[in-house]
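Changelog note: in this version the structure field was regenerated for every chain. One regenerated record is shown below for reference.
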Amino acid sequence: MILHAGRGIIAGMKDRLATRLHHMLLCAVLTTAALFCACAAPGKVAVNAPGGGIQNYPPVIEDTPQRRQAAFEAWKKLTAEFQLPESRLELEPVLNTPRSLPPEMTGRISLQTKAGAFGELEAKEALRRFIERASGVLFPNHTNGSSPSSIGLKDLSLVSFTDDGSFYRAVYRQANYPFPISGGYGELRLAAGKNGALLQLNSRIIPALDLPTRAEIPPQSLVDKMVGREFGYTNIAGQPMSYKVANRSEVSVKDMVVYPKQEGNRITIHLAYPVEVGQGTTWTVYVDAITGQEIDVKQNFAS
């Protein structure tokens, strides 16, 4: 009897221990789920990132006084290296990169380091050296997570170099994203005189941010979504007009792009499908390839 009673006590202890372990495991699962839900800020969704991780989408670039001050300090340091007086740099909104060269600095930054001809080859090499030297000014000082984004000359591709008579014009395009950057972002524009002096600069380079590598929305589903859609516009006489998409043949889904969208003091970075609609008069509707939400609409004007 004593042995039988002892066995009963041990069995009861095992049942209670199993129940307690089950409750602990359930609490841990619920706590983890709550943490993941809390990580997605309002206006964002949690998506699978490369490698199976979770990130908030779309990533956001926030404008702050600290970032603007850092941009001004970088410009001050660069002009001091060229032994030039202080000047106020006009910045691109949110990115805090140069919108233009201050007028008093035009032609005063020498790109040529040695005497001699300043032909196309010399100009291209001089511009490369300047980009490396001025990286703190030309590239956004955004912080992605716990470490600063790393953008540099290695992430640029020279897409255009022209001789405009008395000066050279160069356009570099950002190439560190898996898809082209749209909306006029992701470009660095420089102009240099044939005497080797910097004449103009503009940088709309965006930080290196984590984005999904594939779409969640089937592109063909966007065609049906656009049929029946109406667009308003104004004709050449200033009269309000409207256009209604009647057929699928009036809709064309283009290749995916990275689409930065500025709203106030922040820029959200989206993967997007440019959807061209219309005949004759056309519009491009940018649709988020992850969420399916409409990001922007732009009327296309014939050039």
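Spot check on this record: The longest strand covers residues 266-279. Residues 102 and 292 are 42 Å apart (CA to CA).
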